[in-house]
Amino acid sequence: MGSYSRHVMLPKEIAKLVPKNHLMSESEWRSIGVQQSQGWKHYMVHEPEPHILLFRRELNQSNEKQRQQMIL
After folding, report:
1. pLDDT tens per residue across span 4-37
2. Rg (Cα) of the chain, in Å, rounded?
């Protein structure tokens, strides 16, 4: 099964709050103001631009149906 990915660009002032030694849990990224639906996992920081956070979410049958409905 595949996954969706999403890049979140933070204002540089907020990016200073991103931990440098680990990826953030959902409660951590929500606490700095990132708003998105549940189920997204922070999986990487874009090293050349640390204010860009990379998230992914597993593609499952229910969100695949939602995606197809959005296309129609």
Report:
1. 999 999 999 999 999 999 999 999 999 999 999 9
2. 14
Burial of 55 (0-12, 13-18, 19+ CB in 10 A): buried
Q: Would you state the pLDDT for residue 13? A: 95
Global model pTM greater than 0.85? no
DSSP letters, 19-64, are: -SSSPPPHHHHHHTT----TT-EEEEE-TTSTTEEEEEEE--HHHH
The three-state secondary structure class of 5 is strand
Cβ atoms of residues 2 and 64 within 8 Å: no
Identify the architecture of domain 3-71 in CATH.
2-Layer Sandwich (3.30)
- Going by the DSSP 8-state scheme, the letter that residue 2 receives in this structure is -
